[in-house]
Specification:
single chain; alpha+beta; 10 helices
């Protein structure tokens, strides 16, 4: 990814959207294409959702070919933004800064995987769970569980539309971004590990942390009991050197994720939970 102008490292929401749309256009099949889900099935699912949706939930359908949202329902009730004006760009801009990097990397890899026909898609069967913090119109952040399902795809298993249901979990309490890809039985899909591995590779390639800082973070992630003395011995450097590395790691992480970290161990746990370490 290094040196590529179309990198997941891009910074603004609009740039992320343009980047992802470029990927969509490259991978989507030429028109006309054979759609596998009958429109009446989709309409029935929408009617069921509208009738059965419980409190503190909203949903929409995303059309990847058009790059637009449709069937937007109840967002105004729980986030304050008018349903008719809600867009993909708006959604991306509402994600908490501490979660945007992980969401960016995940969106990139899911686009490559699901638009590339790499798995057999089934209507409303496979699902992808995210825990994501979104900014309310009044300025505070709320934590939502976001569950996304295949809603339309081609005979070559290329995703065209997805339906997403959001459930309010509560106020945002510095919760890391979370992702899980499951089948209808709740079992982890094979693609889950592939996506996570790609995210880790891409995050490392961004060179946010130096080689030695990365090694230290990896040690903290793998061994909850490791301490400065043990790291000093493992890397054959002074304890003061490890302390200086730890200081740099915390400073870099605080700057990138726009939140304060009290220790390098906390940074490592945060990165690991988000799937990028």
């Amino acid at each position: 990814m290094k040196g590529n102008s179309k990198s997941p490292a891009i910074s603004s929401s609009n740039e992320r959207i343009r980047f992802l749309r470029d990927e969509f256009e490259r991978l989507l099949p030429p028109l006309p294409c054979k759609k596998m889900v009958w429109q009446r099935e989709q309409q029935k699912q929408i009617r069921i959702l509208k009738a059965t949706l419980i409190h503190e939930q909203f949903f929409y359908v995303a059309d990847l070919r058009e790059g637009k949202l449709k069937n937007v329902n109840f967002i105004e009730k729980w986030l304050g933004y008018p349903d008719q004006d809600f867009t993909i760009e708006k959604f991306m801009s509402l994600i908490h800064p501490s979660q945007q990097l992980a969401f960016k990397l995940l969106s990139y890899n899911l686009a490559i995987y699901l638009l590339g026909g790499k798995m057999k898609l089934q209507f409303m069967v496979q699902y992808f769970i995210f825990h994501v913090a979104l900014r309310h119109i009044k300025g505070h952040y709320l934590l939502f569980k976001r569950v996304t399902y295949p809603f339309q795809f081609t005979d070559k298993n290329q995703l065209l539309e997805y339906l997403t249901v959001f459930t309010l979990l509560g106020g945002y309490q510095n919760t890391p971004f979370y992702f899980r890809a499951s089948d209808q039985n709740g079992d982890l899909l094979d693609m889950h590990l592939t996506i996570i591995e790609n995210m880790q590779t891409q995050f490392k390639s961004l060179r946010v942390f130096s080689t030695q800082e990365w090694r230290i973070l990896t040690r903290y992630a793998k061994d909850i009991n490791i301490n400065i003395a043990m790291l000093s011995q493992a890397f054959q450097v002074k304890e003061s050197t490890i302390k200086e590395y730890n200081k740099r790691i915390k400073e870099k992480a605080s700057n990138i994720f726009e939140r304060q970290f009290t220790s390098t161990r906390e940074v490592a746990a945060w990165l690991a939970y988000q799937g990028i370490l």
